Amino acid sequence: MIVNPGKNEMIEVQGRQYRRLCIKTHVITDADKIIDVVTKYAAPEMQQGDTLFITEKAVACTQKRAIPMKDIHPRPLARFLSRFVLKTPYGIGLGIPETMEMALRECGTFRILVAAAVSAIGKLFGIRGWFYKVAGEKARSIDGPCDCTLPPYNEYVVLGPADPDKVAAEIYAVLGHPVLITDINDIGGNILGAAPGSVDRALAVQILRDNPLGQSHEQTPMGIIRPVEA
Length: 230
Prior knowledge:
9 helices; two-stranded antiparallel sheet; globular
């Protein structure tokens, strides 16, 4: 287990300290099964009281939800809408036609159009974030390639994982420890899936708020939350 460069192992939340220990793996693809990856890399490191957290991208890739950019043919609407998406250094989001096209397919054209209209109204009042509140987690979880993306996924669009709560429960049944499927980046995050007995989702977001797994070439798609005993 490692601590990624520029990240802290320890964090204090609500008066309690937690260690965040990252687990390095091979590059996960659709040839892998997420339970096999967890069994190989995480299971030997787990201790009583630990919670395993796994990036949504790692889960999605094993579900064949990573789509090559060359296979996505954006419609004119996707090209138009993507022009209005705020670009940040932390991820492309729906800011390119290919990711917007996948949002239209995943969420439905009507919902994305409503989200875009609501977002436009919000921007008139200086309020951001309404697009994803309307479009939902499926849209928020779509991840496009950027300069820091680990190959081969620098040429892919990765969708959010299917049935993340079910995946977390299946891993929990094998691992015997609480499991979280996370969507965390350098500006915020969400817990997409959780197994029974896992850390409260809001608490987990606070524990992971500085994105200990990193967002570049770290190759640490999972980690352990380990409470520090008082």
